[in-house]
Predict the structure.
Amino acid sequence: MNGGILTFFMFVLPLYVVAFILYSVRAVKGPTITDSILAVDCMSFDIAAFMAILAVYFKSTYLITGAITLALWAYLLDVYIANHLTKKEVGT
């Protein structure tokens, strides 16, 4: 059982690292603010997904709580920025 999980992490972890580097480059160099927001959004959802995988592996309820909170925070960022870009108002 543990050998299969460790093999899974051995293949998945490099993919997450490469994706995180690409998202970081896009967040910094994005030609528009929308590209930067999308990159930050993808990073936060990837971190939340990795936290959920770790929560299953370690059987930890605290990690899954953090993953859900992070995913909801990223969704709130999306809604707030979409509202700002469409209405050009902040906070309504």
Q: What stands out?
A: The mean pLDDT is 87. Helices lie at 2-29, 33-58, 61-87.
